[in-house]
Amino acid sequence: MQVFLQTLVGGLSLGAVYALVAMGFSLVYRTMGLVNFAHGDVLMIGAYTASTFYTSTRLPFAVAIVSAIAVTGLIGLVIERVLRPLENKDVTLMLIGTIGFGMVLQALAILIWGATGRAVASPVKSAPLDVFGLRIRTYDLVVVAIAAIAVVLLVAFLQRTKRGAAMQAVAMDHEAATAVGIHVGRSNAIAFAIGAGLAALAGGLAGPMLYVNPTMGGTLGIKGFAAAMLGGCGNIPGAIVGGLAIGVLDSYAAGHFQGYSELVVFLVFTVLIMIRPTGLFGETTVSRA
Amino acid sequence: MSDLPGLPRFRTFTFAAGVLAVVLAGGCAAPGESKDSGSSGTGPIKIALVDAQSGQLSSLGKWEYKGAKLAVDEWNTAGGINGRKIRLDVFDDQGDPTVGTNIARKIDSQKYLAMIGTAESAVTIAMAPTLRQAEIPNIASGQSPGMVALKSPFLFLNGPTSTTYDETLAKYLVDTKKLKKIAFISNNGAYGKGEHDAFLKALSGRGITPVDDEVVTTDQKDFSAQLTKIRQRQPQVVFIGAEEVESGLIVKQARDLGINAPFAGAAPQGTPVFRDTAGAANAEGTIVSSPYLSNDTSAATKKFAAAYKAAFGEEAELHGAKAYDGTQIMLTAMKNSGVATGKKLADAIRAVKYEGLMGDFAFDATGVGITATSIGIIRKGTLVKAEG
């Protein structure tokens, strides 16, 4: 029983990070019908930037993460601007473009920070909580709380603000949206910037849990992408459920299947996707080729 | 994503990308094109250094390059070999065996006399058949017993194998410290598997079965399930067979879960990367089996560390030291044999007796030159030699 619960706790904290990654994927997919393959590498840049502000310039952790979000938000805007001429013409080329951007970001990270990577000290110094023999890290609680706040803010933005409503409209029918005077390009740019900001948030939070290095975007990116697909790509609540599900599934598979856990996670994922091709909260999503 | 409307453009794009890739790959590879510089007896002596310079394992590759370069620079400053300068060209294998086999063919066609590297056993094993056929001697830094099993007369190791590391460790833990309750956590990669098997063998030779044997994947980030199981068995010591970063994460999470037993492992657990990832307080007391405990163990290591610091502005460590030893041996063999190539050079390497940073090298028929390691313990963040 103790193993069962402890595994759940471990899975949920990483799951919260996957959920943030998945939300970034979903937001861009929702508005543009595009899977941003550079997302994992934007996350890595965010993690490096946050850790640099935090450890080198000794800014408070929260300020470091906000600065990192600003930096990656700009990167998101640049990616969108470069891809904009292809919008509504060729999604395949845009996909390849995002892959290219990911490689460029990795190369940039190696140039700036070197290939070795760095460990980030936890900003929360207090010892883990002991709840009936279960150990809960205080930092994990912080991560889960911040992820929850990010979700609330994002949903409020999409549903309660004019700009958010406009983005939803672009997602549903971009021609009609253009006709009523919504600037599609700007809407996409905002989606990309927020998506990149979410990646930085995920990366910044993951830094003290993991290890920051130029290839960290690969692992977190692929799990986050799987989470987004599992939840129903483009669906924000789905991304959260998907993220937590992948995190927990990962944790249990590691306990039961040891060295084969990765294989088992993706087998389960494949079976679920075969049963529900549109994901758990699936809706027929946009495809704007 | 549903259709491919711009197929002709798509082709142009992939073609352009392909050209770009070729250009980039060419840019990364070493500029070793001049035809007359091989074994002809004039021009520089060409040695290839093959290691990951990009990707996840590039820190190993960079350390190894620095060690090898230091040795080559020393020899060049002293006038080279027989009046010829030594040229060390770097090839990036990205830690990938497939890339490695391509490089093996390349260094054969470009007439390199010898090869230093790689730091990854899997890449070295992949390259070995080609190098053996081309008769290019290779001094590698991996420690997998799988390399020895190849029985290639052209393959040498600049350090001990996992068997040595883990036999020393078992001797210390079981024979000296009388610890019986040992738990395992190792990854399923080439390194982790090798460590797991070697240590298990060392234990079973002493009639001991581990109280728990957990295997993780090389990509795993959360170890709650396995560590909780280990905690329930209350081991006296936990053996860890994983690379630097993953070991650090395991130890950090283990301490958070309330496991207070010390961890024990080999070379990766003695590195600053491990200590920083785990956190210095969490890494305290870790027992490490290594041929190179610190820069302060002897006059030779102090001299090496000072030169390393002067050249690269950072602290020397195990992998740089191994590559330095390997390169010194290679260059000594070249000098002794009058810059011979192929089998003659391999025989010259086998004949070299060298007092290096790792210990006293004396190669046997399998290409192993060092069969001893020492035990160190992390105390106040640094590795110190264990007493007794």
TrEMBL record, chain A:
<dbReference type="GO" id="GO:0006865">
    <property type="term" value="P:amino acid transport"/>
</dbReference>
<feature type="transmembrane region" description="Helical">
    <location>
        <begin position="189"/>
        <end position="212"/>
    </location>
</feature>
<comment type="similarity">
    <text>Belongs to the binding-protein-dependent transport system permease family. LivHM subfamily.</text>
</comment>
<feature type="transmembrane region" description="Helical">
    <location>
        <begin position="59"/>
        <end position="79"/>
    </location>
</feature>
<keyword id="KW-1003">Cell membrane</keyword>
<dbReference type="InterPro" id="IPR052157">
    <property type="entry name" value="BCAA_transport_permease"/>
</dbReference>
<keyword id="KW-0029">Amino-acid transport</keyword>
<dbReference type="Pfam" id="PF02653">
    <property type="entry name" value="BPD_transp_2"/>
</dbReference>
<keyword id="KW-1133">Transmembrane helix</keyword>
<keyword id="KW-0812">Transmembrane</keyword>
<keyword id="KW-0813">Transport</keyword>
<feature type="transmembrane region" description="Helical">
    <location>
        <begin position="224"/>
        <end position="248"/>
    </location>
</feature>
<feature type="transmembrane region" description="Helical">
    <location>
        <begin position="136"/>
        <end position="158"/>
    </location>
</feature>
<feature type="transmembrane region" description="Helical">
    <location>
        <begin position="91"/>
        <end position="116"/>
    </location>
</feature>
<protein>
    <submittedName>
        <fullName>Amino acid/amide ABC transporter membrane protein 1 (HAAT family)</fullName>
    </submittedName>
</protein>
<dbReference type="InterPro" id="IPR001851">
    <property type="entry name" value="ABC_transp_permease"/>
</dbReference>
<dbReference type="GO" id="GO:0022857">
    <property type="term" value="F:transmembrane transporter activity"/>
</dbReference>
<feature type="transmembrane region" description="Helical">
    <location>
        <begin position="260"/>
        <end position="279"/>
    </location>
</feature>
<keyword id="KW-0472">Membrane</keyword>
<dbReference type="GO" id="GO:0005886">
    <property type="term" value="C:plasma membrane"/>
</dbReference>
From TrEMBL, chain B:
<dbReference type="GO" id="GO:0006865">
    <property type="term" value="P:amino acid transport"/>
</dbReference>
<feature type="domain" description="Leucine-binding protein">
    <location>
        <begin position="44"/>
        <end position="368"/>
    </location>
</feature>
<comment type="similarity">
    <text>Belongs to the leucine-binding protein family.</text>
</comment>
<keyword id="KW-0813">Transport</keyword>
<dbReference type="Pfam" id="PF13458">
    <property type="entry name" value="Peripla_BP_6"/>
</dbReference>
<keyword id="KW-0029">Amino-acid transport</keyword>
<keyword id="KW-0732">Signal</keyword>
<dbReference type="InterPro" id="IPR028081">
    <property type="entry name" value="Leu-bd"/>
</dbReference>
<dbReference type="InterPro" id="IPR028082">
    <property type="entry name" value="Peripla_BP_I"/>
</dbReference>
<dbReference type="InterPro" id="IPR000709">
    <property type="entry name" value="Leu_Ile_Val-bd"/>
</dbReference>
<protein>
    <submittedName>
        <fullName>Amino acid/amide ABC transporter substrate-binding protein (HAAT family)</fullName>
    </submittedName>
</protein>
